[in-house]
From TrEMBL:
<keyword id="KW-0539">Nucleus</keyword>
<dbReference type="InterPro" id="IPR001138">
    <property type="entry name" value="Zn2Cys6_DnaBD"/>
</dbReference>
<keyword id="KW-0804">Transcription</keyword>
<protein>
    <submittedName>
        <fullName>Zn(2)-C6 fungal-type domain-containing protein</fullName>
    </submittedName>
</protein>
<dbReference type="GO" id="GO:0000981">
    <property type="term" value="F:DNA-binding transcription factor activity, RNA polymerase II-specific"/>
</dbReference>
<keyword id="KW-0479">Metal-binding</keyword>
<dbReference type="InterPro" id="IPR050815">
    <property type="entry name" value="TF_fung"/>
</dbReference>
<feature type="domain" description="Zn(2)-C6 fungal-type">
    <location>
        <begin position="19"/>
        <end position="50"/>
    </location>
</feature>
<dbReference type="Pfam" id="PF04082">
    <property type="entry name" value="Fungal_trans"/>
</dbReference>
<dbReference type="Pfam" id="PF00172">
    <property type="entry name" value="Zn_clus"/>
</dbReference>
<dbReference type="GO" id="GO:0008270">
    <property type="term" value="F:zinc ion binding"/>
</dbReference>
<keyword id="KW-0805">Transcription regulation</keyword>
<dbReference type="InterPro" id="IPR007219">
    <property type="entry name" value="XnlR_reg_dom"/>
</dbReference>
<dbReference type="GO" id="GO:0003677">
    <property type="term" value="F:DNA binding"/>
</dbReference>
<dbReference type="InterPro" id="IPR036864">
    <property type="entry name" value="Zn2-C6_fun-type_DNA-bd_sf"/>
</dbReference>
<dbReference type="GO" id="GO:0006351">
    <property type="term" value="P:DNA-templated transcription"/>
</dbReference>
<dbReference type="GO" id="GO:0005634">
    <property type="term" value="C:nucleus"/>
</dbReference>
């Protein structure tokens, strides 16, 4: 290896303090070459590094971490021993504008504070003020990303004054993913640049989530997997999102979350009995969060659902979810038992469990959307005989179920005691339900005038919702909405093109109305364009389609 000299040109001696890191650490005389003779003698030429002006090497960073950890271990083992002169402060690796925890152990002034790239290289958490900011920022929109735990309980336990890993706090896997989402939702560039490091930590801890003895490790690991799946899907990284969705499906099934309160099967024994009604509610919400995740993104990404709904409808006995306060209020009767929840719904079988909460509405809408997509995908031109008759019967049944469900949906502005999360959930439920009709009727819209009109009416309802609902609580929305909006806008563009081809010359009133309506809707949708990469990739083609058709935005 060629050697490069770093010696001073004036004196021929190495400037003071400019030895390589290995020689400094081992207190050896360094000749200033790259690699130096000491490192060459030890056969560690590749590790020979110097401190350039304004830059710290990876070796330096790692060595600081090692020194801090060793110092911290020594301090924990000898709590009454005064700090020595070489103690290292436990710096928090955050930008000064965000806030930095104050070390209780003063350190020498020549030690550099940690950089953002060091985040999570030590077992410490962010400073408390940043923890509060990340958690509150996440919880404000957690309903959009499959968060199924009680928000109040989660926040209280997350902010307890115990170290990460303490059994009274959420599991490290879950906390790390919540911090990751908090970074993304903060909208602050200096925080968001640290996403890769947070993500690496979250993935590592989630992979180990089921080990150890945390009392809620199963539910918290499941929650972490759901959140990671949404994180990757919203980032446009479908393969990784599907991987974590599959992990969530597997864990929910192995934990028998589909058999809660089942009248057909004995109580599942994988999880201990819930401590109270709220904890049972969390488990019920967990099951439906997985169903929503799997169903919606199977349609949105044109993927096969991880959970084989069509073949396994009859094995789901878990009741529809209530609003969370309903569990604390005792609305779930202690002795109530349930059976074939999904099977009864998709087949229009009346039951005493109506499932009228906002989350239940979203789960039902997602299931119907998946059913419509699967049925539409099974259609083959020229189908005849028994296959055609079966398809026709299935089409009529599903069309009827979707229509009745859409009629039963409570308008977002009419829900009692609404919260921003409930309003957003119901907006998504309405939009997906109408999108199910759009998908189902797309098969025959070109040949059947009634189907064409009904499809356009459903698409109008999808776009009308987002154009009419105040956006003050919609800074972020479920990333699956990009698929829903793209589908509805596609119907409008198709109708506009058909009318333009039919009537040459200036657009007539019907076409002008369609153009005006679509323009207003796209302006509202564009407010979400930069929130997630997935939404941006789905909304950009909508705007391009409008531009090509001369629709002003």
């Amino acid at each position: 290896m060629a050697s490069t000299s770093r010696k001073s040109l004036d004196s021929g001696k190495l400037p003071r303090g400019q030895a390589c890191f290995n020689c400094k650490r081992r207190k050896r005389k360094c000749d200033g070459n790259l690699p130096c003779s000491q490192c060459s003698h030890l056969n560690i030429e590749d590790d020979c590094e110097y401190a350039d002006t304004g830059k710290r090497s990876l070796t330096h960073i790692l060595q600081e971490d090692i020194d801090r950890l060793e110092n911290r271990i020594h301090h924990l083992e000898h709590p009454h021993e005064p700090a020595g002169e070489h103690s290292f402060p436990l710096h928090q690796p955050y930008h000064a504008s965000i806030g930095r925890s104050k070390s209780t152990t003063p350190g020498p002034s020549h030690h550099h504070s940690a950089t953002p790239t060091q985040l999570w290289m030590t077992p410490s958490e962010p400073p408390r003020d940043l923890i509060v900011q990340l958690i509150d920022g996440f919880l404000a929109y957690s309903s959009e990303f499959g968060f199924f735990l009680d928000c109040t309980r989660f926040r209280q336990s997350a902010l307890l004054p115990f170290p990460i890993g303490h059994q009274s706090r959420p599991s490290p896997a879950l906390l790390s993913v919540v911090y990751l989402w908090g970074l993304r939702l903060s909208g602050q560039p200096d925080l968001m640049t640290q996403e890769p490091t947070f993500l690496a930590r979250a993935l590592d801890l989630s992979s180990k989530g089921l080990s150890g003895n945390h009392p809620h490790k199963v539910m918290h690991t499941l929650q972490a997997e759901v959140l990671l799946s949404y994180f990757f899907f919203s980032s446009g990284r479908a393969l990784e999102g599907k991987y974590h969705a599959s992990a969530a499906i597997s864990l929910s099934l192995s934990s028998s979350l589909h058999l809660i309160r089942s009248e057909n099967h004995p109580p599942p024994g994988v999880l201990p009995p819930p401590a109270d009604a709220v904890e049972e509610g969390e488990r019920i919400h967990a099951w439906w969060a997985v169903i929503i995740l799997d169903s919606a993104f199977a349609v949105g990404l044109r993927e096969t659902p991880g959970f084989a709904h069509r073949e396994s409808l009859s094995v789901v006995d878990t009741p529809w979810p209530l609003e969370f306060e309903g569990y604390a209020e005792g609305l779930l009767a202690p002795n109530a038992r349930y059976s074939q929840t999904i099977h009864n719904f998709v087949n229009g079988v009346p039951t005493f469990d109506a499932g009228m909460s906002t989350v239940a509405m979203l789960a039902k809408a997602s299931l119907l959307w998946l059913q419509a997509d699967e049925l539409a995908g099974s259609w083959k031109p020229g189908m005849s005989g028994t296959a055609a008759a079966t398809f026709s019967n299935d089409f009529k049944r599903l069309d009827g179920v979707i229509e009745r469900f859409r009629e039963s949906l409570v308008p977002p502005n009419q829900i009692p005691r609404p919260t921003p999360a409930m309003t957003r959930t119901l907006v998504v439920a309405h939009s997906i339900a109408h999108s199910a009709t759009v998908r189902l009727l797309s098969l025959f819209a070109h040949a059947d005038m009634l189907a064409k009109r009904r499809r356009l009416a459903a698409a109008r309802l999808v776009l009308g919702i987002i154009a009419a609902v105040p956006l003050r609580h919609f800074r972020y929305v479920n990333p699956i909405m990009g698929t829903v909006w793209a589908s509805a806008c596609g119907v409008f563009l198709e109708e506009i093109q058909a009318l333009d081809a039919l009537h040459r010359g200036p657009p007539r009133e019907e076409e002008l109305n369609l153009r005006t309506f679509l323009s207003r809707a796209v302006v509202s949708i564009s407010a979400f364009e930069m929130t997630f990469p997935l939404l941006q990739s789905q909304i950009s083609p909508i705007r391009e389609g409008c531009r090509q058709n001369g629709i002003a935005l």
